């Protein structure tokens, strides 16, 4: 199951600069490199539980486009059924000293928000949507450009599934993957199944994926053949969700989130060069 921290965090301030369009069958937020610079490749963001419309996800897409010179897609892989944003407040209340009756009210809201989200977007149900998007992308733009996938929490599982190396027209659906604090993984089976390079940004205080499991992932991905070799970076003093929903008032943790963004961009740059 997903963990409570999958629904905790902060909403970021800012105005996304991309546009909404229909891409490969899905409503999609898309942003191109600034100032007309040519794209080095395509990165598709697979979001956390709050989905493609979450402002944090769109601002992160902008950051990938601005800092990495990628064309970035953030599609609606959840069929219009992400986790509702009110869960952020409900989870805050549950961790506070609020009264028991207040918490009971929020528990009801949490259940009515989380259960439908998981029912519609359980990994096995979402995978055909994800796979279909990437198949079309690879056949069209991805026929001549490198393709990467960056997934967070819920989306991290889908990146790992993409990392198994499913193909269309004799090519894998992605060239490389990146995931920040993935959830819903089956360990170690999911990691053993990787045949493509995937970079992991993990948190040392992640109760869903504690350090000992992070070290297990690191051991497996770093022992793979060069064509599939991954990396694991464990960020100190961070918890699950830090890549997307960090409270920016805490500047040291916000810096770690920025470092994870740089990790993803460096990973794609390295593997796009070798695969283009």
UniProtKB/TrEMBL annotation:
Coiled coil: none
InterPro entries: AB_hydrolase_fold, Dienelactn_hydro
MF term (GO), any: hydrolase activity
Domain Dienelactone hydrolase: 26-271
Superkingdom of origin: Eukaryota
Name of the molecule in the record: Dienelactone hydrolase domain-containing protein
Organism from which the protein derives: Hypocrea atroviridis (strain ATCC 20476 / IMI 206040)
Highest classification ranks of the organism: Eukaryota, Fungi, Dikarya, Ascomycota, Pezizomycotina
